[in-house]
Design brief:
Length: 422
């Protein structure tokens, strides 16, 4: 008998029919003798609707109150799913984050999980119940409701799996696994049978929505066995088949079975580029620019400094688009202090990255990438590299063309010998 955590996303619980299908799938795993904890998201579109409601009252909703509103979608789905499970003759009990004392810090709208009280869950499992937990939400030490950032139910699922030392955490979603790139953008994208933990971390970090990055970080830290699989198949399919379907996130690097330079491509349009131009080129300038940004709690990603002429330099970096206005305000002050010429902001950019542990042992991946982009007349504005990732910033209007071009250039749409799935 195994302990399994199953997480179902918004589309998977997007209608009453789908919730009933989830109940059938969950009941099947329970009836096969497993202990099952289910984490659910709100019905698809519901969290957006709740956040819009808040914004229709206030341009800048109070973060504590925003969490009170945004977290309610999940309370509906845990109750509905538990009822559907009972209709199938299985025992089930639903819990909000607060009820199981899923303790977080107090950073409203992007709180971090600190601790989970597993006693209540263990007692219910022992009593033969399926435990249904609301994703995306927790409480801080003062009992305030917090949420974990968009897509945070993935992290709830993995954190529960870590806390209860589950045998596997299964992320059920509307695609049947992790693909070489978002299959909505590139129909030729292929499902990966396995992806290494490191690669998944980079893909999620670049914005691949299939797993929230914090979920992958948790899985890495606590060695949680993690699988992404489809909730849209026939719910009664054989457990053995289902157990080996989808994509396994693995810790073994030799699992990179396809001998590929690049395993996947991820991208996002959530970032903006800011540039401080004509900066006097002397030590301490990068610190003077970035320190006030860090103090304002704004995350900075790709950073580029160009050697300019006449003793000046241009300094550019990317921030989340939501932080662009604040960043520009801060830099306006900094510009005067350091005597820079001008500050510009551009939110029409896209960040795109190639990821693959295969890059470690190969040279020439970057030049092949640049050649493919040049072939389509796509200008590269910024570049950054790590051991298993090359990231570029380009004009957002070329995003789809760039992803398709690179997908083809690196042979990702070619059929490969299907490796045995685990
Ligand atoms: P859920 O509501 O189940 O959490 P999400 O919408 O958050 O689902 O994540 C699933 C979506 O992630 C897919 O529908 C797909 O469009 C997108 N996606 C982006 N990159 C990838 C990828 N590399 N592989 C699979 N799906 C991806
Ligand atoms: N319902 C939340 C969201 O839409 C959390 C999640 O779905 O993972 O972001
Ligand atoms: Mg999601």
């Amino acid at each position: 008998m195994a302990l399994i955590v199953q997480k179902y996303g918004g589309t998977s619980v997007g209608s009453i029919d789908r919730i009933q299908n989830v109940a059938r799938r969950v009941a099947k795993w329970r009836k096969a003798g497993n202990d099952v904890i289910v984490v659910v998201s709100a019905m698809s579109g519901e969290t957006n609707r709740l956040i819009e409601l808040a914004h229709s009252i206030s341009a800048h909703p109070d973060p504590r109150e925003l969490d009170v509103v945004a977290s309610t979608g999940e309370q509906v789905t845990i109750g509905l799913l538990s009822m559907a499970l009972m209709e199938l003759g299985t025992r089930a009990r639903s819990y909000t984050g607060g009820q199981i004392r899923l303790l977080t810090d107090s950073t409203h709208t992007k709180a971090r999980i600190l601790k989970i009280d597993e006693q209540r869950i263990r007692a219910d499992l022992k009593g033969g119940s399926i435990v249904v937990v609301a994703g995306f939400q927790g409480v801080d030490e003062h009992g305030n409701i917090t949420t974990l950032g968009r897509g945070g139910s993935d992290t709830s699922g993995v954190a529960l799996a870590a806390a209860l030392k589950a045998d596997e955490c299964q992320i059920f979603t509307d695609v049947d696994g992790v693909y070489t790139t978002d299959p909505r953008i590139v129909p030729e994208a292929r499902r990966l049978h396995k992806i290494t933990f490191e690669e998944m971390l980079e893909m999620a970090g670049l914005g691949s929505k299939v797993l929230q990055i914090r979920a992958v970080e948790f899985a890495g830290k606590y060695q949680v066995r993690l699988r992404v699989l489809s909730s849209l198949t026939e719910p009664d399919i054989a457990i053995d088949d289902e157990a080996h379907s989808g994509t396994l996130i693995t810790f073994e690097e030799d699992a990179q079975m396809e001998d590929a330079l690049v395993s996947g491509i991820a991208f996002n349009r959530d970032e903006a580029k800011v540039s401080v131009m004509g900066v006097p080129d002397k030590p301490g300038i990068a610190f003077s620019i970035l320190d006030p940004i860090a103090k304002a709690n704004i995350e900075v990603d790709v950073i580029v400094q160009n050697i300019g002429s006449e003793g000046t330099t241009d300094f550019s970096f990317t921030v989340h688009r939501n932080d662009l206005a604040r960043t520009m305000d801060i830099l306006d002050k900094v510009r005067k202090e350091i005597g820079a010429r001008e500050v510009t902001g551009d939110d029409k950019i896209c960040k795109l990255g190639l990821v693959g542990v295969g890059m470690r042992s190969h040279v020439g991946v970057a030049s092949k990438m640049f050649q493919a982009l040049a072939g389509e007349g796509i200008n590269i504005q910024m570049v950054s590299t790590s051991e298993i990732k090359i990231t570029v910033v380009i004009d957002e209007k070329y995003m789809e063309l760039a992803v398709r071009t690179l997908h083809k250039a690196f042979g990702l749409d070619e059929e490969v010998q299907a490796a045995a799935s685990d």
